[in-house]
Amino acid sequence: MQSFSQDLTSRKVDAELSQLLQALAQISAQISHDVRRGALAGILGATESENVQGETQKKLDVIANDLIKDGLAKLDLVKGIASEEEDDVVALNPNGRFLVSFDPLDGSSNIDINSLVGTIFSILPAPEGELTQDSFLQPGRQQLAAGYVLYGPSSLMAISTGKGTQLYTLDPISGDFLLIDDAMQIPATTQEFAINMSNQRFWEPAMQNYIADLLKGDTGVRGKNFNMRWIAAMVGDVHRVLSRGGIFTYPTDTKNPAKPYKLRLMYEANPMALLVEQAGGLASTGYQDILDIQPEGIHQRVAVVLGSRDEVTECLKYHG
Ligand code: AFP
After folding, report:
1. How many A from CA of 100 to the centre of ligand 1?
2. For 45-88, what is each residue's pLDDT tens digit?
3. What keywords would UniProt list here (predicted)?
4. Which domains does the chain have, with CATH numbers?
């Protein structure tokens, strides 16, 4: 089995981008180790602080955030970072070629119930000049690379540098990620959907009608039955979609008028959209491709509908 570094070389990935991706892989291997130690390391539970999203920070949120920030600061490749756990962008190396946006521990509300969590990252080119939030406000199609690491029974890493989507598994003994799929392909059709059904009464009619037709199964217009999954960690739900197909959606809802969307564009929707499109799927807000959005803020939230090409297309028909 090829190692991550051997695979990047064989794909002729830019040497400095390859160095950055390998650094992120090594940092994620450390996060994987810390997540597995959990209670033994006294790192479960919450801190006394909240992040810019107003969410209580779990101890592992902060540990993972600082591991990534400090690890990237040691390289001379990264001009700055944006993180779910950082209010503002953090300048690192003024001559760095890259910007990195990341969710250090996606699904962290799953930590205390020993369920799936992961790390999501997005790499953009660093523009000339002083680093500000505006430096990051580039559409997702500008991403040079994107990836996630899922801390599950195995720690798996999905990466795209624009040449398909590759999957690697962590060898916990060597600390290396080894290639297990050199071209992930999402099946075009599916009978599996992922949505938080408790928000049903708050969705737009378009999504209410689409989901209602899925639930009617073979008694309704879809003519086939559907199954449902919800991991409450995007990284787990998207990995399932990449692995066996499906449609994952966190649509807009009116539950909290101040927060019409849930998922963050820069470090959840954009990286996942690149991985999904590169594996033959679609990733939309319901009204436009996620990768075409012109970001307006580093913590901007968006609606997400992604997965099997034909099923996302069917869902978009309900959205006119
Ligand atoms: P946390 O990181 O706060 O657990 O949020 C995870 C997440 O942003 C995303 O990974 C999930 O798909 C989504 O929230 C789950 O939201 P619900 O808790 O409303 O189902």
Report:
1. 21
2. 788 888 877 777 778 999 999 999 999 999 999 999 999 999 99
3. Carbohydrate metabolism, Cytoplasm, Hydrolase, Magnesium, Metal-binding
4. 4-181 (3.30.540.10), 192-318 (3.40.190.80)
